[in-house]
# Entry
Amino acid sequence: MPYRDELLYSVVARYGVHFGITSPKQLLDDVFNNRKVIATTDLPNHLSMIAKHYTDCYYCDVEYLAYKHTLFPLYAPFVSEKRRLECLRLMADTSQGAIHLALGVAASRIKQTLSLRYCPQCVRLQQEQYGEYFWRRLWQISGADCCLLHGQLKEAAVERHGHHRHQFVAPYPENCPDSKQGESSAESQIVTNQVERLLDRPPVKSADLEQWSAYYRYLAEQNDCCRGQFIKYENIVERVLFCWSKKWLVEHGLSVEKSESCWLKGIFRKHRKSFSYLEHIVVLQSLLSSPWDINDVLGDVCNQKSEREHHVAPVTNDVSIELRQEYQQRWELLVKQFGVKPARQNKQGGATYAWLYRHDKAWLLKFNRRYRIYPKPINKRINWQQKDILTVRELVTLRNCYEMFLNTPKMTRNWYLKQVKSPATIEKNLYKLPLCNQFFMRYCESTTEYQIRRLTKTVAQLKISLIDLKRWKILRLSGLSEERLRRGTKDFLTKIMEI
# Structure
């Protein structure tokens, strides 16, 4: 059973410890019945499989696990209700990383810590109370860098995205050593206090983006940061920098800039996307009178009116059919000659459009939809021919450097891409890079070639140490088995044994 505020990642890791399972793959088989599950700390998938193990606990369903033992409540209140429900569905089954995209984690300016974190004094208390350590959710949140009782958090010797993607690592004294903690900063205490309330928040319907826009407009007006319809951005910046140090803001990716794309300007404009928990906390702490509660704010946002008030021009239908057809024909000629938008910008066309909008709006919108032109954006920022030449040179250099090494990982396309600059850009635009494509087709290592390289490395080591060559010993030291050997590899090993 999970402890209070324990990550599901920690629950699975402790299960492996309790049952003495040392193989990460066998642990995945036992818990998920799937050997391809990635050990994810913040927003794991396959919650429905975990919920099946708690058949005696009627409350341990997918929603309960997501809200009580993952970091989902940190993001759920700030996305739309439709997105919230969709993300719960993704977490229940296999999402293949879609949950991090849907909640904006993958592209967020708030970066996760590289390692899991812990509080030395808290894990000591865990040992006394429960007889073992476990990973708490509150420790793994960027910005909430302290324990409210004991001080700064420490980084454990466990990477979030380590080399072994399928391994669940439990905390124990070796990877969470006892060390002296420093004093926590005022900023960390503020964030940790509000984040703790967010994590304890029950499943509630989320506000929509229009309500968030209306709330921040109201907040600016209440703090005299408006001049008519415009926001006094300078006043808001002054208040933010008064509450938060520049160093802390820069460290957490929230530096305040003068550019139009600054996050602080965006949060007071019309919301077309959701903002992170840390951006909301920074602004709310600056503009609300202390003490304040994030749950009260979320309640106020949900009470904002989300319906936009439109001024609809009165539509009159008391016109003759002949006059209506005359305007329709006039508009058809203009659209066929110039297009919809240029026709509207024309003086004569603007009057025709306005008349039809008032008297025959349904026909006008239906006709314009047929002649709508979608522009095709052409990205001219990158010289793909030059990038192709430079990248393939880099790839050839890599191959020449690692060609004679026997202990490198399998030299696949992904391995090569991880060694070069901007791998994502290259992978998504390979159709524009013919030389790189040709390189990958010619030099990427097949499974047979990789197995032969592993066998060669093992045989060379055994020869040096003057150990008798045994087929089973070579396979075991190479990490291979007879069942997984390809035909070419089997032939190679047979010839080696004959020699």
Summary: The chain has five domains: 8-184, 207-302, 321-370, 384-445, 448-498.
